[in-house]
Amino acid sequence: MGEEGFDLSERTPREVSTDELESCDIVATMGCSTLELDAETVDVRDWALDDPDGQEMEQVREIRDDIEQRVVDLFDEFNPDD
């Protein structure tokens, strides 16, 4: 991520609560999700991404770039004129 200007060196993953997820309009998962939400208004999208853990750097870059494009596409879906 440093290649893209993001310093994540002091960041640590954290669990996202079900309440937080159910307050969202859209939740994107990496894949193989067992996520079950009670909120019927949450649009859950399983992006079926490869796990970058243990991958060669080139594969990690491809996954990163895929995520970036999916996020851009998602924003374009809801803001097509921007």
UniProtKB/TrEMBL annotation:
Residues 1-77 form the Phosphotyrosine protein phosphatase I domain. It comes from the Archaea. Residues 1-20 are annotated as: Disordered. Residues 8-17 have a biased composition (Basic and acidic residues). Pfam families: LMWPc. InterPro entries: Ptyr_pPase, Ptyr_pPase_sf. This is Arsenate reductase (Glutaredoxin). It comes from Halorubrum californiense DSM 19288. The lineage of its organism: Archaea, Methanobacteriati, Methanobacteriota, Stenosarchaea group, Halobacteria.
